[in-house]
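Hey, weird one. I pasted the Cytochrome c oxidase subunit 7A1, mitochondrial sequence into the form twice and got a warning about non-standard characters only the second time. First submission, copied straight from the form history:
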Amino acid sequence: SFHILCNMAFSTTTKQMKNKVPDNQKIFQADNGLPVHIKGGTTDVLLYRLTMTITLAGTGYSLFWILCACQPKGK
């Protein structure tokens, strides 16, 4: 009886959930000149900028320490 109860609960929740795929397809396939990584709106733009900032800062930090490691030691 527990198995039947779980199946009924699962099937009920899946019937109540709305399929959002067609809506998302309309958004991401729209020919509006935006790259796909920022078509999702403000949140996507903020996440993209945060990712690029962290990437550039990390690259700069790594290059700084490589440059420091290449310098000859002072006596």
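That's the output from the first submission. The warning seems to come from a hidden character in my clipboard, not from the data itself. Residues 42-70 form the longest helix (29 residues).
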